[in-house]
Amino acid sequence: MKLFLGVDGGQSSTTALIGDETGRVVGHGRSGPCNHVGAAEGRAKFLSAVGVSLRQAMDQAGAAEARFEGACLGFSGGPADKEALVDELLSAAHLIVTHDARIALAGATAGEPGIIVIAGTGSIAFGRNARMEMGRAGGWGYLFGDEGGGFDITRKALRAILKHEEGWGGATSLREVFLQEAGARNANDLMHRFYTSEWPRPRIAALAKRVDEAAIAGDSVAHQVLHQAALDLAEIAGAVRAKLFAPAEIAHIAPVGSVFRSAILQQHFKRQVDRNPANWFTQPKHGPAAGALLEAYHAAGLRVRLTDLPSEK
Fold first, then answer.
1. CB-CB neighbours of 215 under 10 Å
2. How many C-beta neighbours within 10 Å does residue 175 have?
3. What is the per-residue pLDDT across 105-149, written as a single tens digit (0 to 9) for each?
4. What CA–CA distance (Å, rounded) separates 54 from 28?
5. Phi, psi of 209 (to 5 degrees)
6. Identical fold, 4-109+286-299 and 111-284
7. Phi and psi at residue 123, in whole multiples of 5°?
8. Which 8-state DSSP code applies to residue 261?
9. Which CATH number does 4-109+286-299 carry?
10. pTM for the complete prediction?
11. Coil, strand or helix: which one is 39?
12. Residue 167 has what pLDDT?
């Protein structure tokens, strides 16, 4: 029996799925993060994370050898320097080593053409059309991009707090919320704390949840921050659409990532997306590991419907 492999290697965990020729998932494994491979320590971490998740999935599938008809592995940070390491762990007649946006798109749309907007700590829009052409917008990091991501939301909220402190911005409950979260004395102390190693980008980005809570409670400044984030995310989705789809061509657009847990932001985003009647807003059908598995089937020339999928949470 021919087997197919999909791997999602991310900043928090690594997930491996093995499927048979019919699309039934027969093996599942999970281990730690594998996103940095530059140093020797990173290389060992990568091999261990992918290797452990692969072995777990193989044991569950009853596979003696890591040989696959098709395999797709998508990694946070992209495929650079990873293909040679993948070759140490497995062999495949049809192999794809790619970035996490591609497998997230394949999972969200179940392998069909469409666009995803990923908004977590940062943000990026990625799409693929029926001609298998791909395009992206955003994803340039917290200094030069990532509009609408968690870090950007927190940054805009902090800027609003500082503007009020300086006397040229409206009052917001976010001031006391952020001071309490950071144990800061005032807005100036808060800003300086955010520049220290105690507050890495993911921790700062996680405060976007507090912005959402303030908006739910009726804070107009917090609501405006979320509204602007939704506009920015819809704009990068539109940029990808313009590259890949004709004006009247239907494009499925799916939101992915922790920022979209905000009902306020997602509603604003959907409203912007729906302004174009050729856009079809849709919730993701599968997670990125399932997307990687679908890409593995496609690489081998097969189109299947996945069954017996485990939760990717």
1. 23
2. 21
3. 999 999 999 999 999 988 999 999 999 999 999 988 888 889 999
4. 8
5. -65, -35
6. yes
7. -155, 150
8. G
9. 3.30.420.40
10. 0.87
11. coil
12. 87
Task: State pLDDT tens for residues 197-229.
Answer: 999 988 999 999 999 999 999 999 999 999 999
State the pLDDT at residue 40. 59
β-pair partners for 279? 251
Kindly tell me the sign of the dihedral angle through the C-alpha atoms of 233, 239, 243, 245. positive
| DSSP label of 218 | T
CB atoms within 10 A of CB 304: 17
Could you give the dihedral angle defined by the CA atoms of residues 148, 221, 223 and 146, in that order, rounded to the nearest 10 degrees?
0
CA-to-CA separations, 250 to 182, 229, 275, in angstroms, rounded: 45, 24, 13
Q: What is the DSSP string of 291-313?
A: HHHHHHHHHTT-----BSPPP--
Those residues whose C-beta lies under 8 Å from the C-beta of residue 78, and which sit 6 or more positions away, are 99
What pLDDT score does 37 carry? 56
| Residue 190: band (very low, low, confident or very high) from pLDDT cuts 50, 70, 90 | very high
| Architecture of the 111-284 domain | 2-Layer Sandwich (3.30)
Phi, then psi, of 89 in degrees rounded to 5: -105, -25
Residues 6+ apart with CB under 8 A from 270: 281
Residue 211: its pLDDT value, please? 98
Backbone angles phi, psi at 151, to 5 degrees: -65, -40
Q: Where are the domains of the chain?
A: 4-109+286-299, 111-284
Please tell me the distance from the alpha carbon of residue 56 to that of residue 62, in angstroms, as a whole number.
Answer: 10
- A 10 A CB-CB count for 6 gives 32
